[in-house]
Amino acid sequence: MNPRDRQILHIAIPSIVSNITVPLLGLVDVAITGHLGAAAYIAAISIGSMVFNTTYWLFGFLRMGSSGLTSQALGRRDFQEVAAWLIRGLVIALGIGLLLILAQWPIREMALRLMQPEEEVRLMVITYFHICIWGAPATLGLYTLNGWFIGMQNSRIPMVVAIAQNIINILVSLFFVFGLHMKVEGVASGTLIAQWVGFLFACVLCHRIYGKRVGSVALLSRDNVTMLFRNKEIRRFFQINRDIFFRTVCLVSVMLFFTTAGSWQGEVTLAANTLLMQLFLLVSYVVDGFANAAEAMSGKYWGARNFRAFSYTVRHCFLWGFICAFLFTVVYWVGGDAFVALLTDEPTVVEASHKYIWWIYLIPLCSIGAFIWDGVFVGITASREMLITSLVAAVVFFLLFVSVYNSWGNHGLWLSFLVYLLIRGSLQTVFFHRSLMDRQDSLL
Question: Which of 32, 58, 116, 378 has the smallest set of CB atoms within 10 Å of its CB?
């Protein structure tokens, strides 16, 4: 095996393990609530989780920006700047987390007015929200740390943290729900405790492994503060992350509307879509392991101006990603219905899921381009291209949904989502070959 393929797997496999704990954790939460005796519990966790996922997702630039900027600085062997990007990111992440806590009431009310859940579900969502909001600083801080670790070509620390965090979440949630009969409160409390444990654990590991390198930059001397917040670097940080932010707004609007459109059709359809979306998320987080490898390695080689290694990395991240997508297609085709049955014993939800599951068979291969190109574009900080492709794909999604929903119903929602993924990947391919290769030539 080529050494660069080994390096891809060295980064991708731990990333897959850590990434996959996210949808698996969601599956556990859905499975716990799915056995409480009513579809309303599944609907409440779906909406509550979506509120936080969309809110935090808007600040995904804290992870992506840290990864690309750090990997490029590492490629240039500018270790002072490597450490500086971590400090800058953490200061901004914790500040945003505190602002979210202060703004919790308008965020909650805006989400509930948009979702318009039934009264029983609404009360459960409010309970879930008021507990989980206190994990905002920890969640966003961990975004920055994980992005920085990936930029340092180290995906093992995020893996260890994710495993520990999610084991705690699962155990605490199970104890609170089934041991103390706390129901929605138990799931929310387990999530909150795990968020803070994960962030603090990541800080400890960062200090132990990179403490000397980061510590010299973190000292509050006048020279360090000036270096950390130089106008040039701060301006670049916000320029890149402004594009990533608005690109993320496009992605979040699609995902939020997907859940909202499901809620319009009743709690059974919403619950079915939630279960099937877990299968999509499982694919996305596995393939994202190779996207993370593309982030780390393409950013490093781009920063080092090693374009031969950069080109090899892009091609082979796609190769490994396609292999994973094909395997998921086969697994879902064979065992998708059985998988849904494991998540809930509600017969109406199982029946509804069966009607739409064949869309999931098409998802893996149709989404691979969007995932891997995202990793490459993050690594080389091609933020403007990411914004344009995501905006066009989102517009197509909404226009197609409006055109087919009356005749296709929920099938039209899934069709629009599939086309959205295809458009993202296709446009990114065009941008890469036409625009980004020109940028590479200018750097030679």
Answer: 116
